[in-house]
Amino acid sequence: MEPDLQLYSVRTDLALEAKEMAQGPQRTPIPGVNEEVEESDGIKVTRLGVANAAGSQAIGRAIGNYVTLEVPALRNGDTGLQQKVAEVFAREFEDFLTRIGIGKDASVLIVGLGNWNVTPDSLGPLVVENALITRQFYELVPDQVSPGYRKVSAIAPGVLGLTGIESSEVVQGIVDRTKPDLIIAIDALASRSLERINTTIQIADIGIHPGSGIGNKRRGLTQEILGVPCIAIGVPTVCYASTIVNNVLEMMKNHFGQGAGHTKEIMGMLDDISEQERLSLVKEVLEPLGHDLIVTPKEIDEFIEGIANIVASGLNAALHDAVDPENVGAYTH
Amino acid sequence: MEPDLQLYSVRTDLALEAKEMAQGPQRTPIPGVNEEVEESDGIKVTRLGVANAAGSQAIGRAIGNYVTLEVPALRNGDTGLQQKVAEVFAREFEDFLTRIGIGKDASVLIVGLGNWNVTPDSLGPLVVENALITRQFYELVPDQVSPGYRKVSAIAPGVLGLTGIESSEVVQGIVDRTKPDLIIAIDALASRSLERINTTIQIADIGIHPGSGIGNKRRGLTQEILGVPCIAIGVPTVCYASTIVNNVLEMMKNHFGQGAGHTKEIMGMLDDISEQERLSLVKEVLEPLGHDLIVTPKEIDEFIEGIANIVASGLNAALHDAVDPENVGAYTH
Amino acid sequence: MEPDLQLYSVRTDLALEAKEMAQGPQRTPIPGVNEEVEESDGIKVTRLGVANAAGSQAIGRAIGNYVTLEVPALRNGDTGLQQKVAEVFAREFEDFLTRIGIGKDASVLIVGLGNWNVTPDSLGPLVVENALITRQFYELVPDQVSPGYRKVSAIAPGVLGLTGIESSEVVQGIVDRTKPDLIIAIDALASRSLERINTTIQIADIGIHPGSGIGNKRRGLTQEILGVPCIAIGVPTVCYASTIVNNVLEMMKNHFGQGAGHTKEIMGMLDDISEQERLSLVKEVLEPLGHDLIVTPKEIDEFIEGIANIVASGLNAALHDAVDPENVGAYTH
Amino acid sequence: MEPDLQLYSVRTDLALEAKEMAQGPQRTPIPGVNEEVEESDGIKVTRLGVANAAGSQAIGRAIGNYVTLEVPALRNGDTGLQQKVAEVFAREFEDFLTRIGIGKDASVLIVGLGNWNVTPDSLGPLVVENALITRQFYELVPDQVSPGYRKVSAIAPGVLGLTGIESSEVVQGIVDRTKPDLIIAIDALASRSLERINTTIQIADIGIHPGSGIGNKRRGLTQEILGVPCIAIGVPTVCYASTIVNNVLEMMKNHFGQGAGHTKEIMGMLDDISEQERLSLVKEVLEPLGHDLIVTPKEIDEFIEGIANIVASGLNAALHDAVDPENVGAYTH
């Protein structure tokens, strides 16, 4: 399998991280990028808007809307918190749909990207498994569908190694035949930061771009390609060994820098070179040995199930008015 | 969920059973239907040809070619026998392709029909999981593919209740975009006979017709619909409670009939009415109570894995010359 | 594998069925057996007490207490009903403990009998997986355990074919070392009646006897053997093909008998022989052919998960006062 | 859950790593520790003997025998190589038994430690699932067992969080009742080195000591505790984030040290402090943030299945003369 070349830079799938890197430690505002932050109950919601080409170029992200939920405590596996996050996610997703002009009746195709045989890459298929599917009722008994629902279908197209077919090909074939008004694509991501793994959810209206997520997507899922709007929901579930090292060296720098101020003495050049240079150093060492492994926390089985339930419950409540946000859990396994 | 009305007659998905029913106990030959039987090592292979409209009408099956493997001993779960059956299946399937004019280079899309969450309906998805997939190499590195392989892709399209989309829609979308030369569709079937469950494999070049198999397919997968030849591979994995009763009454009739000849005394009217009438009687009793359950043997988990391995191994060897029929098992889990 | 000889009579694991068979169609009361029936919301609860040797002999069951929940509508997979049944089960189980003199502080070992690789036999292991386990806290941090809980441990000992060890040996070893005050053993059963499969739960304080349940237990789990009280919870999940036939012939008899009265004409001798004789006739036909399969409904995967959730939720609420019976579901997956 | 305190030093479960650390970069021989290395086909076998107290103290390992297989290429998932490693493992294990005086007829209890719900901790249960179990035949039909087999039973005792019972309690209960001559305990380990994850297998006759492996074992499985010899088979499947960082800093040191010689300039103090000090520094930074995650490679599902097959196949061939080492794979799924 060829390497995921795109990942071999301080690349991130999260707009929030891209913005932070562009801002630098001073957190200087970026023209063309607006931001709104809200936090309560340990759930931090950041709504980013990349309004124009200048903003887009500054942070290396497409023009569009991005919402990020950060919930560090999700790592502790608290069922009550998961329920709370599902409710916030549902509300944010519903607002997001309104903001980008998707109506209550728009039919939806949920696409669960990823490989069900690889636990950290199985988020998409798991969400599909728990989504509330209704399209068949609209097709077979249209006059018997209760109000408060909309037409939702879902597919987990698999990955190239399992099917021999690009997932985007499978999706496009289905879009051509079933004509949904909106695609929602779920994907597991690689994180630039150890602490974001399994604790962060991103919603974006820019679709899935080639090379994003885990695995190597050669073709994307975007409005340009599919002809319908495409919202991407992503959760970081893995990171590179080199990312961990780089990340920890940064923490060490901050840690020792705050104290005595002789970071340079402790860390040598590793202290004052840029993050990009430092990561290159780390890779220079790891790659020839084939040791730049992609890793995931030991507890990934439980994490991925928890996050998939949050996303599925949240989507069910956001897409169907008849599904009560306080009781979203009841519709998933 | 609406009932599978088509199953509510002495219906069968096996051409061999349809032929036997049409022939009656005297086994009179049927004009327009030719038959070739071969048996060795406990594996009985029947090659049926329905040559013309007369034959088709007589047995209620489409004009076409049908091959059936019957292996009663498969019920015992002997690994050595499974390997042997995989080899015979591979050889028969390869001959079948030649007979119906499919060349060595024809590209193939394997379609695994059925619901992976329902064990007796998971045959198709399991075969897909174990099939040797190569299309991606032909697309990405065409000049590096070794000789002895052909282009194979595979998809398990799920069922209407899981995806909201007819499996035939999903398949047609993929066929439109990837243009395979041949479809091979795998499906679990309902059996008319208790002893055929998990011991019989049918190959047919007539595709999948609406209402066949487990679940209620509203649209088929046929050459007419898809525009490419479609071979169906089916294995009976379930039967109706009423089928069992009817089946056993038939066995009782034979059993007591052979002995003293007073079957009538023992079984009353159940002895001399037609099979169709008797089944109606049984249904008349069971259906109003909601007790005409579809059942499967207790050991279905192990059976379905064994049969899926046979079919996947056999297909891998039949489709790729480079895969050795004696060692087909190595390519599956 | 040797046959389950015990099952080859009109045997049943349900005391309720044994009583009904002993009573005959007239439902004559049986001395030494008292009965209390309550029904609401489609849930029928029968509390049987076998008070003395006469009662025991009459129905062929050990002296003891038996509670049966019958919920025909469970077959429809309604989540709301499952929740309701879990609550009733919790209440009945709590009363049962009181009735047989088990205190609030009695420590419990839950034993999940059966084979996790055979879906209809996996009830016990599934309940264990979802039980609220607390013993480790009492052992490690006894002063930090909140009130409202008791000491609960759990084990799925596997089956002889998987481990080479009788499950009763494994349990006895654990009992010797951990000294629980009570054993609760969960087991899947064979049913005499098609309609009881997956719709009936039995609680009994007589333990598990050799040859009961699915699989062939050579040693039991009883107070005599283990030295502590042993409650058995059982759910029928399979039945024999011969049982189905016998069952349906009985239904036919009732059906035609009610109408014109010429059942004899229709069914011959099958009409007026005893159930036991009829079953022998059926077996005489099926067994030599090896066709007396043990079968389970096609939807067993979903059924078994639903019933396991009911039993686990119910047990969690009944065993721990701190677990709210209205919210029992939250503690299981 | 309390932290695994024992892991918070440059601790390793591998005797080979302990020896290398004790030797230092000069690889000076250690009195009381003898070593034999053999390498072919990319499989490196190291046989260590810790002969006396001096040797034991020098490397911090119990007196005993240790065999390590290192196969870096296992990371590539080559089926042919897996087969080869299973054969070498079988041969080494058989020799190991002979060396420590275990006879051909010694009965064996295989113990699969770990949590089947946590993929990187599921090695033990997976090996148990694939082991060839024979004890039941010796118990039930002793005169019908073919020559070339021995009495083998197996159990996966679960973990404290799942059962409420220490796995050692479960095992001791079973040992008390079934009296095996030998215990073979399989466990997943934490590695000190990124490159050993999923590529190394250790055999040792010192049993399982408290605090070894993944999870926090409070009691061990040793001859002292159980009264029978106990062989441990371990495979590293996870490591700490801090281990990765420390490991990479070591690689950087070597990398830059070889070149220009100005490592100090690049890495500051990180260059010349001891490994132990460096790891402390890293932990000082990571722990307060709760970021010293235990991680595993993204491909863990496939790795663990591959390694479990190797160990199970190898054990089956080593324990039963009738199982052919060239065909060991056929006995596992």
Automatic annotation (TrEMBL), chains A, B, C, D:
InterPro entries: Pept_HybD-like_dom_sf, Peptidase_A25. It catalyses: Endopeptidase action with P4 Glu or Asp, P1 preferably Glu > Asp, P1' hydrophobic and P2' Ala. Autoproteolytically processed. The inactive tetrameric zymogen termed p46 autoprocesses to a smaller form termed p41, which is active only during spore germination. One of its GO terms (molecular function) is metalloendopeptidase activity. SUPFAM superfamilies: HybD-like. Keywords: Hydrolase, Protease, Zymogen. Its EC number is 3.4.24.78. The keyword Protease applies. It comes from the Bacteria. It is an enzyme of class 3 (hydrolase). Residues 1-13 form a propeptide. GO terms for biological process: proteolysis; spore germination. Belongs to the peptidase A25 family. Initiates the rapid degradation of small, acid-soluble proteins during spore germination. Homotetramer. This is Germination protease. The lineage of its organism: Bacteria, Bacillati, Bacillota, Bacilli, Bacillales.
